[in-house]
Automatic annotation (TrEMBL):
Reactions the enzyme catalyzes: GTP + 4 H2O = 2,5-diamino-6-hydroxy-4-(5-phosphoribosylamino)-pyrimidine + formate + 2 phosphate + 3 H(+)
Start and end residues of each stretch annotated as Disordered: 83-147
Transmembrane domains' residue ranges: none
Secretion signal, residue range per the UniProt entry: none
UniProt-listed Pfam families: GTP_cyclohydro2 (PF00925)
Species this chain originates from: Antrodiella citrinella
Pathway: Cofactor biosynthesis; riboflavin biosynthesis
Enzyme Commission code(s) on record: 3.5.4.25
Keyword entries, A-Z: GTP-binding, Hydrolase, Nucleotide-binding, Riboflavin biosynthesis
Family: Belongs to the GTP cyclohydrolase II family.
Protein name stated in the entry: GTP cyclohydrolase II
InterPro entries (UniProt xref): GTP_cyclohydro_II, RibA, RibA-like_sf
First-tier enzyme category under EC: hydrolase
Length: 495
């Protein structure tokens, strides 16, 4: 052993390496005292036995290009070794570069996707591709979380709008859906019941905004059937308490510190006072999420206004020959941002629209369909609320979109009437679209002084502007929305 601490360290390492790599296993004699060295003997051993590509942290990369790969830039091929002067060496200093032996991430993901596509008949790609999937969330487990979950299966498979191309529909698990909670929310148009749904299909929390203020008055007899969620009112577990039911919203009447009456699945709803044929069917809107229009008041679209207008119209009192009853219906709020393409793609589409393309072309340029929404979940929510069922009342649907009517009918929703959603900025120049029923009249709030004109979203009132005009015209001209356009001649033209 050397006395020089520097040399003795290296020699110790080499001796240890020799010993560890010897054909017969080493026997520790206690001659090598433990110390911290610059060279970790275990790393040396790992490097010597596992090949040049193994480093402490990287199992698929070389920071120093492999000596066994003469082609790699910077590597050293000893068979070609020639003595060079120190001047030459300085000129040809090898550049050490980071070299990865993995294919680029995009290529590896691409390959993985092709394999998944083969295995799943194309479904995996649709669900896993982060640029196509709306929220970058993984699909949920197709099985319900627990066996006691009350489920509602929808009647038919998802269909996209008729604007969609005819590619093969992915095979999806049967839809299971459940209302997890409900609560009263006061709004400028009156109280509503907000229902939150979970389902096994898309990992999103879809909502139902139920307008049925008559339910808050549990003392007076009801004139119309209550709009309640069957899955919420069901018994979830044998051990659930009244407080469990009340907390999740399964109660009747209005909650207060003094009144807490849980609903019961065995509770028989008293028959309505008014015969069903005299009642107008509940007014329904299937609304798609629009962060820009509803939250930051974007004037590129009328989505915020439409949401507000729908709640306002549904909340209007209904005047029957002998009595005026509160408005009733629901907005089913679907988390299908950007007509199903997601917020990220919608933001990109807006930039393409600023370049001069319309809303349909911008979607197509991004590799999306003009409309990627499905209505199976919306249909199942309506069914859970007892709306639009074959055996119950039909519904009146607030929309201009013929595809939506068709898609909902395909899901088994009984639509007895379509009610137009005329943009507020167009209302003054259009003929009055007020709904007329033989002896039923919707009370206009201005007349009664009940509620101010619906204007609750950011910016309030009517949305207007060039961007919106272009958007609305495209919906009429390219997506077949059923609204008359005002021509340059000053006349309305049905498209
Ligand atoms: N991709 C895309 N989506 C948009 C654009 N503007 C609004 N949206 C989305 O469109 C959805 C609302 O769709 P609308 O066409 O207004 O309504 P609709 O449901 O088809 O028809 P109506 O029932 O008549 O209102 C929301 O999800 C918005 O986020 C846009 O320029 N591009």
């Amino acid at each position: 052993m050397h006395d020089d601490p520097c040399c003795s360290g290296v020699e110790d390492d080499l001796a240890l390496l020799d010993l560890l790599t010897a054909p017969t296993p080493p026997v520790f004699t206690g001659r090598y005292k433990r110390r911290d060295s610059d060279l970790d003997p275990l790393m040396l051993l790992a490097a010597a036995t596992s090949g040049p590509h193994v480093t402490r942290n990287h199992y698929a990369h070389d920071f120093f290009p492999g000596v066994d790969d003469p082609i790699a830039e910077g590597s050293y091929d000893w068979t070609r070794w020639q003595a060079t002067s120190s001047k030459d060496r300085q000129e040809r200093k090898p550049r050490l570069k980071y070299v990865s032996r993995q294919a680029p991430r995009s290529q590896r993901l691409g390959l993985k996707r092709v394999e998944e596509d083969k295995e799943n008949g194309g479904v995996a790609r649709e669900l896993a591709d982060p640029l196509r999937n709306t929220e970058n969330l993984p699909p949920r487990d197709p099985q319900p979380a627990s066996s006691h979950v009350e489920v509602i299966s929808a009647s038919a498979s998802t269909i996209a709008s008729s604007v969609s191309t005819t590619s093969a529909a992915p095979v999806l698990p049967a839809l299971h859906l459940k209302c997890m909670a409900r609560t009263r929310v006061p709004t400028p148009h009156g109280p509503v019941f907000l229902h939150l749904y979970h389902n096994n299909r898309d990992n999103k929390e879809h909502l139902a905004i139920v307008v049925d203020p008559a339910q808050l008055d549990s003392e007076s007899p009801a004139h119309a059937p209550a709009i309640r969620s069957a899955s919420l009112d069901a018994v979830w577990t044998e051990t659930e308490t009244e407080m469990d039911r009340i907390t999740r919203g399964a109660y009747v009447g209005r909650l207060s510190a003094a009144t807490q009456k849980p609903s019961s699945p065995f509770y028989v709803v008293p028959p309505p006072l008014t015969p069903s044929e005299a009642l107008p069917s509940p007014l329904i809107r299937i609304h798609s999420e629009c962060f820009t229009g509803e939250t930051i008041g974007s004037m590129r679209c009328d989505c915020g206004e439409q949401l507000d207008e729908a709640i306002r119209q549904i909340s209007l009192p209904i005047k029957l020959p002998s009595v005026t009853i509160p408005g009733r219906g629901a907005v089913i709020y679907m988390r299908q941002e950007g007509r199903g393409i997601g917020l990220l793609s919608k933001i990109r589409a807006y930039n393409l629209q600023d370049l001069g393309h319309d809303t349909v072309t911008a979607n197509l340029m991004l590799g999306h369909k003009a409309d990627e929404r499905g209505y199976e979940i919306a249909g199942a929510i309506l069914k859970d609320l007892g709306l639009g069922t074959e055996e119950g009342e039909g519904v009146r649907l607030l929309t201009n979109n013929p595809d939506k009517v068709q898609a909902l009918e395909h899901e088994g929703v009984r639509i007895v009437e379509r009610v137009s959603m005329v943009p507020r900025s167009w209302q003054s120049r259009h003929v009055d679209h007020e709904h007329e029923h033989d002896d039923v009249q919707i009370v206009t709030p201005g007349e009664e002084g009940v509620t101010p004109k619906g204007a609750t979203m950011i910016g309030g009132g009517a949305v207007y502007g060039d961007d919106l005009e272009k958007y609305l015209r495209t919906k009429v001209l390219r997506m077949g929305h059923m609204l008359p356009l005002l021509g340059e001649d000053g006349l309305f033209h049905d498209q």
